[in-house]
Amino acid sequence: MTLPVETFFLHPEAQGTLQQQIQQMIARGILSGRFQKGEKLPSTRKLAAHLGVSRITVTIAYTELQANDYLVSKGRSGYYVSENAPSPPTFTATPEGTDAVDWHRAIGQKFSGGRSLSKPQDWARFRYPFIYGQADPTLFDHANWRLCALQALGQRDFNALTTDYFDQDDPQLIEFIARHILPRRGITANPDQILITLGAQNALWLTTQVLLTQRRRAVLEDPCYPALRDILSQSRCHVTPVRVDQDGLPPYAIPPDTDVIFTTPSHQCPTNATMPMERRRALLERAQEIEALIVEDDYEFEMSFLKSPSPALKSLDSDGRVIYVGSFSKSLFPGLRLGYLVGSQPFIREARALRASVLRHPPGHIQRTTAYFLSLGHYDALIRRMGAALQERRKAMEAALADNGLQISGRGYFGGSSFWMRAPREINTSDLARRLQARSVLIEPGHAFFAGSHQPSNYFRLAYSSIPSNRIREGVNLIAEEMAVVA
Amino acid sequence: MTLPVETFFLHPEAQGTLQQQIQQMIARGILSGRFQKGEKLPSTRKLAAHLGVSRITVTIAYTELQANDYLVSKGRSGYYVSENAPSPPTFTATPEGTDAVDWHRAIGQKFSGGRSLSKPQDWARFRYPFIYGQADPTLFDHANWRLCALQALGQRDFNALTTDYFDQDDPQLIEFIARHILPRRGITANPDQILITLGAQNALWLTTQVLLTQRRRAVLEDPCYPALRDILSQSRCHVTPVRVDQDGLPPYAIPPDTDVIFTTPSHQCPTNATMPMERRRALLERAQEIEALIVEDDYEFEMSFLKSPSPALKSLDSDGRVIYVGSFSKSLFPGLRLGYLVGSQPFIREARALRASVLRHPPGHIQRTTAYFLSLGHYDALIRRMGAALQERRKAMEAALADNGLQISGRGYFGGSSFWMRAPREINTSDLARRLQARSVLIEPGHAFFAGSHQPSNYFRLAYSSIPSNRIREGVNLIAEEMAVVA
Question: Where does the HTH gntR-type domain start and stop, copy by copy (chains A, B) (predicted)?
Fold first, then answer.
């Protein structure tokens, strides 16, 4: 490719003659790696016109650079970056502290330092990836996704692709969610009660901003999804972690001054507990009694391959007290970044205004692609295929874990894609995870899920959403081996 | 399509016999519009298995519904929603105030009520759309965008499509911006000094959250991009609007207790003023003197078809004092929702952590598609084509405005895609815009750009990025006509 002439310009503060400035500019481009070996330079005529200098000035500069072996001339075809030109350094981290700015003072609010789960970006290279929440290329319906994306790229959808929706969403996606997704959870909602978000993360964040302030109190399940704890701690509200039991969040333990209760009733994260119907009613009653709102994160409800899922907590709510969070990250893929909020209009109105201010709207193309994928029935087929595969893997997991005597602490009544595991008390699962990485096994240590500083260190999550069945036994054997070394 | 069996289930609180519950469930589905005329119901066998009831119960329910003309039986092929079934109501806004929740109390922070520009969503149906910032289907290189998207949907890019990048971005896009986009603005940056955002809106929002608090002061240009004013007012920092002149923001008018200065030096929004070199230096000196940071919104620099753009303010900054905001909304399309932040690491680190908490990362697929579109040279070709078309339109605008005696208040030295217009003092341009809409002309009234409550009401913006050349004269004539009626 020819280097675009627009990337060339003379620095207004540059010293020396025009010819020298041009030479320096090109040499700097090569040395910094912007112009790479074999790339073609603009013609002398073009560069001269662009810079507003005479053509002969450019020609002399090029000839000089050729003499220095920065450039080679290939006759009429023009000038190229020489193969012998000095190699650029690879990008190195700029040394900090060279700024004149005192960043410690300049930064008004710190956001870094959260306690998120860390997953190696190259997890797919590990032989036994018991990791959670990534798309499995062997299960995802890539071919139909491509077709839907292609359809959404068509002339007819030009508007959906390119338009600035301001605070609105793709009406086709909203309509499909209202008519066909929410009814699966027993929820009836109008389009103006639904807001598309950049994944469940974004939905939880928006909800927190709208409902909580420094003077309000949130109840969090303990253990819970660690990113939610970061969101709440950034909002500076008061947080009460409430320890979950075999049935999920116990309503009686929720303090009376609570404003917002965050819960995962269908599928407690990470213990996989399913809240029984009586407790759901009790939870709604408790919320009513103390005038709290409930945020229901209904992640992974699609993975109910053992038994139909119970309806969402939101379906039992006649008060408008429950705000529902849905996501396509598990059923489609996390890089899609699509989720949704369902709630009463006064709430959705504020969440919508905040979303508009923060990011306007999720990109139109991915909304339309998803609407096609859903409405053509590919989504349902995908869920069935994933369910079948997960069921097989789960069986293999259960057998291998039992044979090795490993203890499952929570397994999910309806299905799901992971087990919550308890190791003997003396095992620190962070160390265990590190040692297992060296043997190409990835597990998720459990401490980040717990609140406070005295977290139990012997829990871990074993997911089976990304590991093929036929590697499960071997992988579990390795885990048992490493655990035996310590114990 | 057959209605997926998953969308059927019995409400746990339902009354009556199982058969009645099934009938009600289906009737409700039809009445609510979830099941539409002609759609096929699951077979009695399937539905029975799904609900855990006997098949005969389902069969009787179906037969009853057939008798009521909700369903029709087509023999062995099964049951369908009858064409004579009652029609669902179209979605109507749920009446507010039926909730048991006191939303006035429950909402901790209000975000609605900002003063944003409103554009009709169906702007493309207007014959003379002098509106700003939407993609022009006659100019955008839709064919190559499709090809790039298709490539990014390929098997090789499965990871870029689906992966959860956590707080990271597509390395290919970052690399291209570092090597080929920023150098056009005279900026050198390492990958760890760049963060991809959901458009410039998101970049400005993240920056505000990191740098400003209730105790800090921001300087805003007056007039300015209205969404920026909303972002700052939501952050509750102190805001000083500084009136711009023909050369943009005057440095001497910036109060000494300012922490952050927001500015659009290349192309003041909305007046189109370009800040001269001496003033840029003076602005940097002023910032240094009072230890303020500068946020440079370099929107629309690509639209410099009259003259090469001057380098960005950031290129003159050796202190690390300038934070640079770029966007692909104008050069590609706004529905893409892609922009970027460039700044020192300590700042980018906090913006990255906040972005991760708010939304994780912009979807991988659109990042990769953009990386291909840029690296294959389509972007440069597009910019050239847009420049040529905008230049032609601008000529037509200038001629038509001059012939009608309309006054251009700011026109942009390097190009751009709009004029900032001043009407005679007695004209209220909001009224003017409303009357012009009735004649299929869209203009943007100017008052939303101004700070405070005593905004001048006689300014408006006339953009030529979405109107074909051959409609410009007619459209401008109509504007002049309507202005004459009032004046």
Answer: 16-84
